[in-house]
Structures are given as C-alpha cells and as structure tokens.
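Session log. Operator J.P. requested a structure for one protein chain; no other inputs attached. Running the standard single-chain path with token output.
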Amino acid sequence: MRRYLLIEEFTCQECHGSGWVQHPLWARYWEANPGGGLTVEEDQTWFREQGEYTPPHLIPEEEPCVECEGAGKIRREVDLVTALVAIGLLYAVPITPLVGEERPASVYVTAQQISAAIAAAVTSIKSYRELSAAYVAQTVWGRVQQPHLPLHSESGQDAWNAFQDALLERTP
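Structure written below.
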C-alpha cells in the first residue's frame, strides 16, 4: 500500500518562533519578586534556597525551547488527507453510528460531494418533512465545519441524517 506524506512546518507556539523560553525557575523568581531590584547577594540567596545556584553564576534566564528544540519552527510528516483537510480542500464529515448497521466513523469528501449530497438530502427529506434547501444546506455546512456542536432541533437532526445517508450512498 502506498502512503503519501507531506512536511508540515509551523511556528512553535511555545516560544512563538524565537527558539527560546524562560527558565521555569526564573518565572517563579519574577512572580516572587515582581519589582525586581534585589541585590546580587539576595538573588543568589533566593536561587540557593531553590537548590539552583552554582557559584559564581545564576542559571540562565532563557533556555532552548523543548517543543521545537530551539529551532523556532516545528516540522513533522503528515499524510496527504490530513494536509488536504487542514487547507480546506477536503472535509472530514463525522458519521453517526446506527444500531445494527456498520458505518465509518467519518468520511473525507470534497465540497462538491457535500453539495451533491445536500441536494439529494433535500429531495429525500421533502417526502416526509417540509424543510427548505437553504435550511438543510445551512445545517449541514454548520455541522461539517463544527462537528462538535450538537444539533438542537428535530428538523436539524432530520436534515443531518438525510445528508449522511445521501453522502454514504455517493462515497466509495
């Protein structure tokens, strides 16, 4: 089986691209001494009490970022489908499981496939419920883009169910 991989590169969120982060002990120091202004001896005493003072120097205030290993950017391999979903060319549509029916947890589809399934859902749903095409489309696109949000109405659930059925009929 072939697998296509791409390299994803993005700015490290931990260091915001600088490659450096504040040492956690220095963060505690500044919380304990917000105005600063301590003498060198007082600073040394504070760090000695924390068990982190090796004369004659204090520990550096900044250290290389662990997340990006000091690079400021993170690079990782991602599969092609993940990349296409991330840039908006494919959508991961969650599928509601049904008792006694084997269904995938989600399918990856294009906007055109979603539109075709919405049209089919509108046609099938009109036989038992009067919902406008705009309502069905709005409900489906809202759910596709924010799958974690619940459907609060029976008509919204009917629209989503009809869409899923139509989508699964059209998805290999």
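Operator note: DSSP finds six helices and six strands in the chain.
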